[in-house]
Amino acid sequence: MSKMAMILSINRQLVWFAKLRYPWMVDIPSSRAELIRYLEEYSSKFVLWKAPNRNCFKCNTDGASRGNPRPTSLDFRIKNWEVDAGVWFRVLFI
Predict the structure, then answer these.
(1) In the chain, how many domains are there?
(2) Most buried among 2, 26, 80, 85, by the most CB within 10 A?
(3) How many C-beta atoms surround the C-beta of residue 44 within 10 A?
(4) Is residue 87 included in any domain, yes or no?
(5) Is 69 within the bounds of a domain?
(6) First to last CA, the chain
(7) What is the pLDDT along the chain (94 residues), one digit of tens a residue?
(8) Is residue 52 part of a domain?
(9) Which has the closest alpha carbon to 35: 61, 17, 53?
(10) Under 8 Å between Cβ of 28 and 16
(11) What's the rounded Cα separation, in Å, for the pair 20 and 67?
(12) What percent of the chain has pLDDT over 70?
């Protein structure tokens, strides 16, 4: 494999990994330099959590592992209307 072919292969793998890892990002660039710049300039968005109504419960999860063939886990928290009360769960899928 030539040096150029190896560089192109690595670039394709980086773009593939970025699309797999960050599916919510759109227009991910195809070159390594642009991809690095894009990821460095990306800023996270904060989500405002609102407590449920009195005598109600809310379940929050950490997301999902879409398309991942390896073992994965799921974290979720069940909370009531008192913000400081809640129970964390972790489930491992093998």
Answers:
(1) 2
(2) 80
(3) 5
(4) yes
(5) yes
(6) 37
(7) 788 888 888 888 888 888 888 777 778 888 888 888 888 887 666 667 777 888 888 877 765 565 666 666 677 777 877 766 667 766 666 6
(8) no
(9) 17
(10) no
(11) 8
(12) 69
